[in-house]
Amino acid sequence: MSDGVTAELLSKVSDIPADQWDALNPRGNPFVGHAFLSALEESGSVGPGTGWSPAPVIMRDADGIPVAALPAYLKTHSQGEYVFDHHWADAFHRAGGQYYPKLQIAAPFSPVPGPRLLVRDPSMALPILRAAEAIVDQNGLSSAHATFLEEAELAQFRAAGWLTRVGTQFHWQNRDYGNFEDFLGALSSRKRKAIRKERAGAQDAVRIEQISGADITPEHWDAFWIFYQDTGARKWGTPYLTRAFFDIIGTKMRDSILLFLAFDDERPIAGALNFVGPDCLYGRYWGCTRDVPFLHFELCYYQAIDYAIAHHLARVEAGAQGAHKLARGYEAVPTYSAHYIANEGFRAAVADFLERETEAMEREIEFLGEMAPFKKG
To answer: Is 270 helix (H, G, I), strand (E, B) or coil?
Structure first.
């Protein structure tokens, strides 16, 4: 690299001092922060036996200070990404290639849009992407993938020649509501009545607490671990995160964590874990030990909206998929990923697929926008 800048591939984010890594994440996105990524490493949620081998890409200046970074992993499967490329892998294998390992630039297990190019200034974006490409080419990898990147980063990935892909999620937008009733007032009458009915049904059945910061105890984490295991076993077969992860973030990220717990008398029966960002509440995990009608909607969506309004947050992001969120005031928004494919023939096939898929996704997002539950006119 010129001007004394060098690139290197490390074995874990924990090898970089937290202040140096976080200086490249000035807006404080929690999912690419040192605390979150190092907690995944320390807890064994990523690393040996998981198929996620930490491989952060770092560029340093002449003084050895990081000026750019990619939160990257060598992946031996496509689980825990939420941007699905299994059919790409199958096609590549049928053609005689080896798709895995691949380089994944991501916040593991977190379908949360955010920065993936952690750079001191925009001029470092292209050099660090070229470094990622060199890792792919020099090690005989099939590809590199940056998932759930910010829309503002698209131009930089496209300038580097990476293919881009469009997906969709459902986010709640705070239009300066004073309270939950103000939000309901923006909805059609039918949707407004339905939400009131759901909230009443859930709140009449359980007692709900919002717990954050130092008030979250090991007993709360024990209860939430049971909820998380139940959901993980049903969705993924094996939960991605270890029990130790929750203890570690409970210490490292205490001020960024918000739990909504539902109690039957004094016994917790359901919970939702959220991370609080500078302008957004991120709903991440949910689970229960007893089915209560509408409780999922109350803990994951309506409590989150209440909190966002009270704390003047711009939006709530409630995770991947879930068109049922649309009826509850969450709106369809595009999400983005970028892909470097080393093999020219395979790249051309993927590019053709993405062109057609993008057209379909744009039509779907437009259609979903027309289905939003807000008053017309």
So the answer is: strand
Q: What is the amino acid identity at position 263? A: F
pTM of the model: 0.95
Based on the fold, state whether residues 181 and 214 are members of the same structural domain. yes
Q: Could you write out the three-class secondary structure of 230-265?
A: HHHHHHCCCCCCCHHHHHHHHHHCHHHEEEEEEEEC
Query: Could you tell me if residue 219 is inside a domain?
Result: yes
Nearest 5°: the CA angle 319, 262, 301 is 30
Q: For residue 91, what are its two tokens?
A: 């096609």
Structure confidence at residue 108 (pLDDT)? 98
86 in a structural domain = yes
- CA 346-52-26 angle, to 5 degrees, is 95
Q: Are residues 79 and 219 in the same domain?
A: no
In angstroms, the CA 320 to CA 332 distance is 11
Same domain flag for 105 and 239: no
Residues 165 and 185 in one domain: no
For residues 53 and 343, what is the distance between their CA atoms, to the nearest angstrom?
23
Kindly state whether residue 355 falls inside one of the protein's structural domains.
Answer: yes
Report the b/e string of 153-191 with b at 16+ CB within 10 A: bbebbeebebbbbbbbbbbbebeebeebeebbeebeeeb
At residue 2 the predicted structure's pLDDT band, cuts being 50, 70 and 90, is low
| Amino acid in the structure at residue 201 | G
Instruction: Kindly state whether residues 288 and 343 are assigned to the same domain.
Output: no
Q: What domain count does the chain have?
A: 2
Q: 3-state DSSP call for residue 174? A: coil
- pLDDT at residue 239 greater than cutoff 90: no
| Domain assignment present for 377 | no
Mean pLDDT of the chain: 95
Q: Domain span at residue 304?
A: 175-313
Predicted local distance difference test score (pLDDT) of residue 237: 61
Question: Which pair of structure tokens corresponds to residue 76?
Answer: 């031996």
Distance CA(39)–CA(291), nearest Å, equals 31
**Rounded Cα distance, 274 and 267, in Å:** 21
Q: How much is the CA Rg of the chain, to the nearest whole Å? A: 21
